[in-house]
Amino acid sequence: MNWLIEPLTFEFMRHAIATAVLLGILCAVVGTYLIVQRMGLLGDVIAHAVLPGLAIAFFFGVDIYLGAFVSGTLSTFVVTWIESQSRIKVDVAMALVFSGFLALGITLITVLRSKLDLHQFLFGDILGVTTIDIWQTLITTIFVLVLVKLFYKELLFYTFDPLGAQAIGLPVKFIYFGLNAAITLTIIASMQAVGVILVVSLLVGPGITAYMLVKELHQMMVVGAVFGIISSISGMYLSYYLNIPSGAAIVLVVSGLFLLALLFSPHQGILAHRS
């Protein structure tokens, strides 16, 4: 059992694994709503849209995560505005906003001569998390999970039938904003672990793996969270013993689990249909 215990003797590994487990749970729960609404690209949009906020906040000495939240949330409003004011489909609007905000972020970092570590935010550095970072991730996770629990029925109705939810008087605009805020918070919490480039895989990967195995939304969340935890811990151990980037290792495990589910799922697996 030495191979299992040895990484835990290092404080940075204990911090990294604790953070990864929390993110595995958080991303699986929030990502489930993205998957069911077929809005996986929105996570990618928000992940890259935080860059302008990071650059501006860093320049003015404001909390960079506050700037990231404002910028990420703004991107979702821009997507909605473009869709509502034109004949442009939502996927095209998201692609445009995705590239536009990313280009703006890179430009601002250059123009403002920011000393912001762009490499860290793009690719993550989970081995550098501190105790404060763990507490911030824990608070974010608890906050989002409590809100999901309290408003589960409303979110469930809105997710599968937004027009019906509006017809019975549910505040669909508020629910839409709340979901986008939760997605943005999740992405910001995950940036240090896997970076904005790989965060979408962590956001939707465990959820779509669970989707191959179960049918109910709450089951997707629970099973997805289990896969998120397994992926996070396995990825950290692979990173330690194979000396590969931690974020990439976690995402590779996520992708591997999905591939197994895609092939061997009893109900939807490719090989199950052939047998």
Automatic annotation (TrEMBL):
Top-level taxon of origin: Bacteria
Keywords recorded for this protein, A-Z: Membrane, Transmembrane, Transmembrane helix, Transport
Signal sequence bounds: none
Coiled coil: none
Spans traversing the lipid bilayer: 12-34, 94-114, 134-152, 164-188, 194-214, 221-240, 246-265
Main location: membrane
Gene3D superfamilies registered for this protein in UniProt: ABC transporter involved in vitamin B12 uptake, BtuC
The keyword Transport is annotated on this UniProt entry: yes
Pfam families: ABC-3 (PF00950)
Bilayer topology term: Multi-pass membrane protein
InterPro entries associated with the record: ABC_BtuC-like (IPR037294), ABC_TroCD (IPR001626)
Family: Belongs to the ABC-3 integral membrane protein family.
The protein's name: Metal ABC transporter permease
Organism for this UniProt entry: Gloeocapsopsis crepidinum LEGE 06123
